[in-house]
């Protein structure tokens, strides 16, 4: 039972970590939701803003200024939290691989392997909470920006919704949290 639970948690943690990495690297955290003009599709991300022409499929991207330049708080905080979550999830995966029962590393000391799995669960839980905070922070900021414009009766012709990268970050963080719960609570 323990080995099956470990392998299940490892598979979920691996898939969720890939989701977190993909969310951090991609640039569709915020997407325009104006349905009246299907001329272009605009995505804003953590690293750049891309516009795709819907008629011919040409995509152009504008890189943000230097990483040291002044950026909106939502971008800086989300970048920091997502990169930290990626690093912690990667560290947890490496620790978990060494702690799996099916790996012959430290086979003679099952207590140490169990502690490694537990430690990987704690690290994974910390990373998942940071990733979830980063994803939700960005989503809430997008919502507040849109609500503020609507409350002041300002309509710029385009309004933004959450992009697939934001949803992917939330899904990856949630998956890492579930894997963490499996490793820390259900393994003993």
TrEMBL record:
Superkingdom to which the source organism belongs: Eukaryota
Named from the GO MF annotations, one term is:
structural molecule activity
The stretch of residues making up the signal peptide is 1-28
Which PROSITE patterns does this UniProt record tie to the protein? CLAUDIN
Gene3D superfamilies in alphabetical order: 1.20.140.150
Q: How does it sit in the membrane?
A: Multi-pass membrane protein
Q: What is this protein called?
A: Claudin
Q: Which organism is it from?
A: Dicrurus megarhynchus
> Gene Ontology terms, cellular component aspect?
bicellular tight junction; plasma membrane
